[in-house]
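To the team - zinc ion complex, inputs and output below.
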Amino acid sequence: MSRFDAIREECCEGNRRLPGAGLVDLTFGNLSVLDPDAGVFAIKPSGVEYGKLTPADMVIVDMDGRVVEGSLRPSSDTATHRRLFLAFAGIRSVVHTHSRSAVAFAQAGLEIPCLGTTHCDDFYGPVPVTRAMTQEEVGGDYEWETGNVIVERLAGISPLDVPAILVRSHGPFAWGVSANKAVEIAQALEIIAEMALKTLVLNPGTSPVPPHLLEKHFRRKHGSSASYGQA
Ligand SMILES: [Zn+2]
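Output:
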């Protein structure tokens, strides 16, 4: 028994959902879960097959990047997750995938424009793309610097209004208040990326939705006037 069992279990379950959600090929993807009171997070170990993951395999890392518990090496993207937890108050889970349509936008260096209400339900505006990283950033503490360009790009934007980003030439990071929510956002992101890609093939001149439609759909599911669902 460990006092981190709850985040180990949530983290393991979240990671195990990723292949079934159609979000990962091979082992390109990882999810973490924060315990804000303890100041640690659980993260997938590096290079382990999703189907073989157990809660005991999750690695517990503190906010200085030290492994607190766990015998396996944490995901190579651990420093990016840590950077986001430090920057974005209120998020408890971060997920990184190489889901294909979102990666297509990241590789093209394009944000995902808000072309319809499916997008508006989860993202209050376009899903941004980060700037290109410099040679120094890539050659230095690369994963930490990846977190830095994400934080830089989201300056002035609430991370819960736009709960995902595309790292240029790489792929998406998404987040939420729980592992389930982060996986749901990663799925929604892939769906809207695929829809936008097809829309732009059919009509490259498609305009983004008008602000009043974005406002209506986003606010139905978020904030004090939310009316969607049974809660
Ligand atoms: Zn990656």
